[in-house]
Amino acid sequence: MFTNILVAVDRSEHAWAALREAVDIARSEGSALSVLVAYSTNLFWIASAPMYQATVDEYLAAVHGEAQRLADEVADAIPKELHAQVLMVDGDPAQSILDQAVSGGHDLVVVGSRARGDATSLLLGSVSHAVLHHSRVPVLIVHVPAIEKAKSASPR
What we know:
By secondary structure, this protein is an alpha/beta fold. Helices cover 49% and strands 19% of the residues. Strand 1 (4-9), helix 1 (13-29) and strand 2 form a beta-alpha-beta unit. The protein is globular, with a radius of gyration of 17 Å.
């Protein structure tokens, strides 16, 4: 059914659950799997705060280094029998996922969801929400019920 799956990951438990789900689907369908690590070095705030170039360079190197560590962890977690690739993209996560889905010819996008809800998504933005509403291919949103239940039970 699906031959070319894209899954986006970050350090959240929801993203790792999405990765496990994508791996399971890829195994059962014999699909190719692409894992996207999107990070942003956008320094939109730099205009309001004077900074030394060395500080900016250190920040950019740290962001890229963290993304590379995540990409390496993901590569190690993917079963070797799968046809998989790990991609790193410097850009807005939602737009990077949507762009990769098109350019990579993916027929399924898998993302995790933190289940913030519509009101919070309006304020904070939501990668899964944006991908769901703008993707040209089917999107599987993976929830982690135990995490969501714990968050809803905790006092605010």
